[in-house]
Design brief:
0% of the residues lie in helices and 65% in strands. It contains no helices and ten strands. The protein is globular and about 45 Å long. Pfam families: THAP4_heme-bd. This is Ferric nitrobindin-like protein.
């Protein structure tokens, strides 16, 4: 596939990643989940499509999903634009550090829009650390009158044979 020049350095993300995560927040009970993240590319387009889904670890019941786009910028910055059925959209800005088969994507600046009927979220931050076929994620959130703090952690592995050249 011919990748857009802004997307080509991120081709290692393309594919499906599976694993487990843990959630915690002062206003809820701790929980564990199964997570699937998929990055896909369209030929020549300057973005990657992003989809995330979670299920309860014990029951398999659906928990959360979000869809969006990773938009690498010519100046080296990155943007992540997400929509969630809980009533939020997120526009995150950050940086990418790419060294060999290790990468760190840090989104530390966010604008969150809440629908009229959603529980309000004030701000978010995300990190994605890729080391070979392991993707470690964190999600921080300010909501429910709480300051921004860690809400989710997950460790995912890339599905075998699911790469940019497959």
């Amino acid at each position: 596939m011919d990748y857009h020049p802004h997307v080509a350095p991120f081709a290692f993300l393309i594919g499906t990643w599976h694993g487990e995560g843990h959630g915690h927040y002062p206003t809820i009970s701790d929980f564990r989940y199964i997570e699937t993240v998929t990055f896909t590319a369209l030929p020549g387009k300057p973005f990657l499509r992003y989809e995330q889904r979670t299920r309860h670890l014990d029951t398999g019941a659906p928990m959360h999903t979000e869809l969006g786009f990773l938009r690498p910028q010519p100046d080296g910055r990155i943007e992540l634009i997400l929509a969630q059925p809980t009533g939020q959209t997120e526009l995150l800005h950050g940086t990418a550090e790419l060294i060999d088969d290790r990468a760190t994507l840090t989104f530390d600046e966010s604008t969150v829009s809440n629908s009229r009927t959603s529980k309000p979220v004030e701000s978010t931050a995300r990190t994605y650390i890729i080391d070979g076929d392991v993707l470690t994620t964190t999600f921080d959130m300010a909501a429910a009158g709480q300051p921004r703090q860690r809400h989710l952690d997950s460790v995912l592995r890339k599905a075998e044979g699911d790469g940019a050249d497959d």
